[in-house]
Amino acid sequence: MSIKTFSTAIVTLLLASAAAQAGKLAIVIDDFGYRPATENQVLAMPVNISIAVLPDAPYAHAMAVKAHQQGREILIHLPMAPLSKQPLERNTLTPAMSREQVADIIHQASQKVPYAVGLNNHMGSAMTSSLSGMQNVMQALSRYSYYFLDSMTISNSQSVPAAAGTGVRVLKRRVFLDDTDNEADIRAQFNRAVALARRNGSAIAIGHPHPATVRVLQQMLPSLPGDIVLVRPSMLLNERPEPGTAAPPIGKPAPARRPAFRGVPYCSSRQAPPPVYADALVSAIASSVAETWRGILRGETPPQAGKLDLGKPDDGKPDNSTPGIGNPNSNKPDSSKPDDSSPAVGQPDAGKTGVGK
């Protein structure tokens, strides 16, 4: 094997390893079907930016077809009843509806938004907090092999327990990008989504086809950090589920949680080590491989395996040296907003929320 072939194989392997370790960020743009001019700017963005289409919007079918032709992932953005008292859009799902009524509305939506592979809720704090209502939704979705993306407009959403036994898989939104039209706020929310993807391995952010949101995405997507990769929501379905996102089997109670093992004091480092990102790791290893081969070409003897300088023995001390229709703008979160004061898994990072979900 030539040096060039060997080096190429090593770099390819390292790049594949880095991609596997990258934080996965899914971005979904809701409320498609009302503003074709702005929405076309979204469709000019990377194909892994997914869209959610309102079934009764005037341009719903056309936008779904165009996005499909690009190879883009499409969701049905289905109106669901909010807790706030406001006019409901046509074909809004409510907790009082029968299973047949829910199934009929979802069937109509599937005809209006072709090529959809998932469904998420438009508003919906009243509907998603109703277990019986969401059980009707999940039963209907199971006929189409749709996944459900919970927009998490309320913290006590029943989507996960309602999906138990139906085969419907549930994803959860972690960040709303544009609770305001202020570009600085949107940029901060985008950075928060990136940080969550890096910390947890994946994150889902939802935005809307507002001019300010489009401008921020156009600015920030080209400079996405090297350890973050854009993905479609469906690519996260096979990720290891976070606590609170996997439905327990029917008939089996959830196991009691054991107290966390705290360890002994002298085993705990007082400061977390600095993060090592995949791009830096690839660069360091590739540089080391290249230097080794240059030494071989100069006739130098490579270091012998097994002879390592282990340094001075560990003294046992911790190392502390490391420092209504036609009004898609109604898709704002409810006043019954999720509590994002805690970083616990399963509580989405809602950012700033307003009335309307």
Secondary-structure map:
Blueprint: H1 3-21, E1 23-32, H2 36-42, E2 50-53, H3 60-69, E3 74-80, H4 99-112, E4 118-123, H5 125-128, H6 131-141, E5 147-150, H7 159-163, E6 170-172, E7 175-176, H8 183-200, E8 202-207, H9 211-220, E9 228-231, H10 278-297
Parallel strand pairs: 1-2, 1-8, 1-9, 2-3, 3-4, 4-5, 5-6, 7-8
Helix pairs in contact: 1-10, 4-6, 8-9
Describe what this molecule looks like in 3D.
This protein is an alpha/beta fold and 357 residues long. The protein has a domain at 21-236: TIM Barrel (Alpha-Beta Barrel), CATH 3.20.20.370. 33% of the residues lie in helices and 13% in strands. It contains 10 helices and 9 strands. It has helices at residues 3-21, 36-42, 60-69, 99-112, 125-128, 131-141, 159-163, 183-200, 211-220, 278-297, and strands spanning 23-32, 50-53, 74-80, 118-123, 147-150, 170-172, 175-176, 202-207, 228-231. Strands 1, 2, 3, 4, 5, 6, 7, 8 and 9 form a 9-stranded parallel β-sheet that branches. Helix 4 (99-112) links the parallel strand 3 (74-80) and strand 4 (118-123). Helix 1 packs antiparallel against helix 10, helix 4 crosses helix 6 (131-141) and helix 8 packs across helix 9 (211-220). The longest helix has 20 residues, at 278-297. It is elongated. The N and C termini lie far apart (61 Å). Mean pLDDT is 79; it is low at 11-18, 243-255, 261-270 and 305-356.
